[in-house]
Write a structure and sequence with these properties.
Order of helices and strands: HEEEHEHEHH
Number of strands: 5
Strand content: 5-15%
Shape: globular
Distance between the termini: 53 Å
Strand order of the largest sheet: 1-2-3
Number of helices: 5
Oligomer: single chain
Structural class: alpha+beta
Largest sheet: 3 strands, antiparallel
């Protein structure tokens, strides 16, 4: 990606960017994302930069975590600075492909991530319990047991009697209350 040669006419003021960057950094620290000494939104690249690397240069698991952190941080920033926000955050599979750092130098190549439970996964879920609005997380694995005890969770499955998806099927709607 090439950077624009000049500042766009509708740029984000540095003071607002700096304040957002602090919220983003706080979010990543709360989730205990490793190797992210500094995080920022680069308005010229229109991309999150964490640990001196653009999000796009990361493996798919880290990209997903950084995207979720950006979405969550933006909601927090808007609420803290009286900016419009619906108060709803929807995250689709934020950690299903995330795995912790490893010693393989080729291991962070795109497409090389595999599902793995980690400290980041647990802390992301726990942190979302404190979100001041509503959070919907679609994930292929269960959150930690201490989160399940404090959150409303729905398991989707194809077994008879289970809920098949987020929106009820026609058959479920007809037989429901």
């Amino acid at each position: 990606m090439a950077s624009p040669a000049h500042r766009p006419t509708d740029y984000i003021p540095n003071r607002a960017l700096s304040a957002f960057d602090q919220v983003l950094q706080h979010t990543l620290k709360a989730w205990k994302v490793p190797s992210v000494e500094y995080a920022e939104y680069d308005q010229y690249q229109m991309e999150t930069r964490a640990g001196n690397r653009l999000r796009a240069s990361r493996g798919k698991g880290v990209r997903s975590v950084l995207h979720s952190a950006f979405t969550t941080a933006l909601a927090h920033y808007c609420r803290e600075h009286d900016r419009p926000h619906p108060g709803l955050v929807v995250l689709d599979s934020p950690v299903v492909t995330y795995r912790g750092p490893h010693s393989d130098p080729q291991g962070d190549a795109p497409g090389d991530d595999v599902p793995m439970t980690s400290t980041v996964v647990d802390h992301l879920h726990r942190n979302m319990l404190t979100f001041p609005g509503q959070v919907i997380i679609f994930e292929n694995s269960d959150p930690p047991h201490d989160v399940i005890a404090h959150a409303r969770t729905h398991r989707f499955a194809l077994q008879e009697g289970d809920r098949a998806g987020f929106f009820p099927s026609r058959r479920e709607r007809r037989s429901g209350p």
